[in-house]
Amino acid sequence: MALDVKKTLLILRHAKSSWKNNSYLPDHERPLNKRGQKQGLKMGILLKELDIIPEYVITSTAKRAIDTSNLIVESSGY
């Protein structure tokens, strides 16, 4: 009996980040701006609507990437 297993790989870039504090904040620590926060939530909602809920999430350790991943996870129902 053959199993019909479909795998989907999603490669996402972080949402819009803030350059507001770039004079003293290392690039790795840049947070999302308000637009980026909304984008992260919207992406999670879209994935939920498309029934593409990830099994695993692997993300960069950069603050903006982690924040984007968390927003997507929360709003997708992961």
Observed structural traits:
78 residues; mainly alpha
Compact overview of the structure:
The protein contains two helices and no strands.
Fold and architecture overview:
With 78 residues, the protein is an all-alpha fold. 38% of the residues lie in helices and 0% in strands. Helix 1 runs parallel beside helix 2. The mean pLDDT is 88.
Distance between the termini: 30 Å
The structural class is mainly alpha
Number of DSSP helical runs: 2
- How much helix, percentage-wise, in residues? 25-40%
Order of helices and strands: HH
Overall outline: elongated
Beta-strand percentage?
A: under 5%
Task: Note the quaternary state here.
Answer: single chain
Largest sheet: none
**Rg for CA atoms:** 15 Å
Task: Show unreliable segments.
Answer: none
**Mean pLDDT across all amino acids:** 88
Secondary structure tally: strands: 0
